[in-house]
Design brief:
Radius of gyration: 24 Å
Number of helices: 9
Number of strands: 0
Structural class: mainly alpha
Largest sheet: none
Shape: elongated
Order of helices and strands: HHHHHHHHH
Number of domains: 2
Length: 219
């Protein structure tokens, strides 16, 4: 097909459309489409015919089957591992969001720059939460089985959403706060408190990913 320009162009258009449209069924399925597009790009200039094409296809099939069996084996041994990784990553991202908001307490800060950073981080967190919803509520091990780990992950997920929504819905007139309290030093104290929360969220996120218990620290 790569010897005929029109046929090649039509093939690329059709495969790109099909491999992208399956992303409508979820973020995880979208990764399959991405892998298909990557394989198509890597094999566009491949020269081969007859048995060479068949052997190449068998190699791709063998690699896909091996990865599928490996994934199923890992899921059978540690069914919550993938969700723990995604949930911990979400909590760490929320901590980063809090860290960005703490920059509002700096003197002479650029509000427009910080707001832009916050908007980007909000979108990233919402994408992570959408993926987590799919993973949690489409996984029978999490929703249907009454296990301590499953209930704990659901509770942590719900609480993390509540924390993020409350924080993203609350904003203050930081310019007025700086004009009134800059000389008092109280804004620096607020910023330090926020950074303590950020550190705790990072530690919790890492603990969720490693399935370790978070120890309470006195400050």
């Amino acid at each position: 097909m790569n010897h005929h320009v029109l046929l090649l162009g039509a093939g690329i258009a059709v495969f790109c459309f099909l491999l992208n449209i399956i992303g409508a069924y979820g973020s995880r399925i979208n990764s399959i489409g991405f892998a298909g597009i990557l394989i198509m790009i890597l094999t566009l200039d491949m020269q081969g015919d007859g048995w060479a094409v068949l052997i190449h296809g068998l190699y791709l099939l063998a690699g896909g089957l091996w990865y599928m069996m490996l994934s199923l084996a890992l899921f059978g041994v540690r069914p919550y591992k993938i969700i723990q990784q995604a949930l911990g990553d979400n909590i760490i991202a929320i901590g980063d969001y809090f860290g960005t908001r703490a920059l509002f307490y700096d003197k002479g800060t650029d509000y427009d720059k910080i707001y832009k950073m916050l908007m980007e981080q909000q979108q990233q967190i919402q994408d992570k939460q959408t993926l987590l919803r799919e993973m949690l509520f489409k996984s029978r091990n999490i929703v249907k089985e009454s296990t301590v780990t499953g209930r704990t992950l659901l509770i942590i997920f719900v609480e993390s959403i509540d924390l993020f929504e409350k924080s993203s819905a609350t904003f203050y007139n930081y310019d007025a706060m700086h004009k009134r309290f800059d000389d008092s030093g109280i804004l620096s104290s607020f910023q330090r408190m926020v950074y303590v929360i950020v550190d705790e969220l990072h530690q919790i996120g890492l603990s969720v990913q490693s399935a370790a218990h978070q120890k309470h620290r006195e400050n």
